[in-house]
From TrEMBL, chain B:
Physiological role: Membrane-associated protein that warps the membrane surface to access and bind aromatic isoprenes with high specificity, including ubiquinone (CoQ) isoprene intermediates and presents them directly to Coq7, therefore facilitating the Coq7-mediated hydroxylase step. Participates in the biosynthesis of coenzyme Q, also named ubiquinone, an essential lipid-soluble electron transporter for aerobic cellular respiration.
Domain spans labelled COQ9 C-terminal: 209-279
Lineage: Eukaryota, Metazoa, Chordata, Craniata, Vertebrata
Full protein name: Ubiquinone biosynthesis protein
Disordered: annotated segments: 37-94
Segments crossing the lipid bilayer: none
One MF annotation (Gene Ontology) recorded for this entry: lipid binding
Chief location: mitochondrion
Cellular compartments annotated: Mitochondrion
Annotated Basic and acidic residues bias: 40-49
PANTHER family reported in the protein's UniProt record: UBIQUINONE BIOSYNTHESIS PROTEIN COQ9, MITOCHONDRIAL
Length: 212, 314
């Protein structure tokens, strides 16, 4: 009874990914799968899972935009931003394997949804595509900032490498955001409605990817 | 004398209190008291100190939150302020761990029951009332056993990986690796094979499903990790699902197997792994064929557009 209660409670802790989880968040009945030392596995799991999903989605958004606007004047610009996102994705793939993190089960869904969003916004014209970029990149930058705060609160020394990566990527996304603004994103049709809707979608995506 | 009295009253409290326990919180006070009482009693009867481990700290935060309970008795073995005191001290969890480990040797005879746990407690010099610390259906014992097996498997795989890294062993092809890992894990069941069906049914109780599922998934994840799986897309799920299926079906076959040395089971396992390999090969062939077909169609479309003169920019 006592052990069962202890089991269930430690399992619940692990599943909730509680930030207050004790160092290492060790599961009592473990099969010994600590990837590295005494990191806070639930928190790192979440962070990497959602970041990986985010970069994957961003990749697909740019792919969708290229499919429509690839041969227009903003084509090279979108291609360049897309290449940077590809690099980000590659980095997160490596980190996922290193930390033995489970990818989100919604990946096939983000695959399609991202492409549709990219293509859809591009069909609204170049400004529409830029507006989409601005909305998404703003969302992602804010999200990365939150993660940086979380990691710094945990232990800046332990997570130095990860912090560096996230900071770098946050700067890249911010740059994309600025590029979008430079290219008349705000002149897009129904800009504020579009932006709000896309950012809401991003929030939902982030929430789900962290957990599932 | 007084300790024996203390034990008796603790025992009574245990037997009466069992029905009242609700598993909604961390190790209840009562269990802590009970184990304290048991330990005092055992100190009386045994020569060597409790536990060869000299760990002196609480394992988990909740234990630390419990105020140290010391029922009246003439021989307190610790001074109750956070566990740094007596060398004999161990946490609740460690005690349970040792009882369960000791109980395993009685499982072939008594099954996964409180009797086995009681016998195990006896060999440690504890009272049979120690079985009251656990559920009567042996859930904790089974989960403990599964967890131990998984840990052993991880160790085994880690050692093998080290050998390969040092160049002292050949890297196995994937199907052989999976086959060997599952076989090694299933072989750990052999001493308990008679009573294992009972254990399986207990593991399927709704109360136990979260824990048993967790143990199963982390074992499968371990095997794939050491097999060198680096997928970060949906394949991650597919592979684990396939291997879980292989493991579960092979386990069931093993229950029914009466061939010498379980050869039928290993042959079944080999066939299932081969099936999985074929399936994945077929899947990738289908995918590349599909891609080729799409390319072909795109090429055909472009050709037609050219022929019809639709491709010229004006």
């Amino acid at each position: 009874m006592a052990a069962a209660a202890a089991l269930r409670c430690s399992l619940l802790l692990l599943r909730a990914g509680a930030r207050a989880a004790p160092g290492g968040g060790s599961l009592r009945l473990s099969s010994g799968r600590a990837a590295r030392g005494d990191i806070n596995k639930p928190v790192i799991d979440r962070i990497l899972r959602v970041d990986h999903a985010g970069e994957f989605g961003a990749n697909r958004i740019y792919a969708g935009q290229m499919a429509v606007l690839g041969r227009s004047s903003v084509g090279p610009l979108i291609q360049q931003m897309w290449n940077q996102e590809k690099d980000h994705l590659k980095k997160f793939n490596e980190l996922m394997v290193a930390y033995r993190v489970r990818p989100t089960v919604l990946l096939p869904f983000w695959n399609v949804a991202g492409f549709v969003l990219g293509a859809g916004s591009a069909l609204l014209g170049k400004k529409g595509a830029m507006a989409c970029t601005v909305a998404v990149e703003e969302s992602i930058s804010e999200h990365y900032n939150n993660q940086i705060r979380t990691l710094i609160e945990e232990d800046p020394e332990k997570y130095k490498e990860l912090l560096q990566v996230i900071k770098q990527f946050r700067d890249d996304e911010q740059e994309h955001h600025d590029i979008g603004l430079e290219h008349d994103a705000e002149a897009a049709p129904a800009y504020s409605v579009l932006k709000t809707a896309i950012q809401l979608g991003c929030k939902v995506a982030i929430f789900l990817s962290e957990r599932i | 004398m007084a300790a024996a009295g203390g034990l008796r009253s603790a025992g009574w409290r245990l037997w009466r209190g069992r029905a009242v326990v609700r598993c909604q919180q961390y190790p209840p006070l009562r269990a802590l008291q009970a184990s304290a009482a048991l330990r005092r009693a055992s100190d009386e009867h045994r020569k060597e100190p409790l536990g060869s481990s000299t760990q002196q700290h609480f394992d988990s935060p909740p234990d630390g939150h419990q105020p140290e309970q010391k029922p009246q008795g003439p021989h307190p073995s610790y001074t109750g302020q956070g566990g740094q005191e007596s060398e004999d001290y161990e946490s609740e969890e460690q005690l349970q761990h040792r009882i369960l480990t000791a109980a395993l040797e009685f499982v072939p005879e008594h099954g996964w029951t409180a009797e086995a746990i009681a016998e195990g407690a006896k060999t440690l010099g504890l009272s049979v009332a120690a079985a009251g610390l656990f559920h009567s259906d042996g859930s904790e014992l089974i989960l403990h056993f599964v967890s131990e097996c998984n840990t052993k498997l991880s160790e085994l795989l880690r050692k093998e990986q080290k050998l390969v890294q040092l160049g002292e062993a050949e890297k196995k092809p994937l199907d052989e690796f999976l086959r060997d890992a599952v076989e090694a894990r299933l072989r750990m069941l052999i001493p308990y094979i008679e009573k294992w069906p009972q254990a399986l049914s207990v593991l399927l109780l709704p109360r136990n499903i979260p824990s048993s599922l967790n143990l199963l998934t982390s074992m499968i994840d371990d095997i794939w990790h050491y097999a060198g799986d680096q997928s970060t897309d949906f394949n991650w799920y597919t592979r684990r699902a396939v291997l879980t299926g292989i493991y579960n079906t092979t386990e069931l076959v093993m229950m029914q197997d009466s061939s010498p040395g379980f050869e039928d089971t290993w042959r079944f396992l080999e066939n299932r792994v081969a099936d999985a390999m074929t399936m994945s090969n077929t899947a990738s062939q289908v995918q590349s064929t599909g891609e080729a077909v799409v390319q072909g169609l795109m090429g055909a479309a472009v050709t037609i557009k050219n022929l019809a003169g639709l491709n010229q920019r004006r």
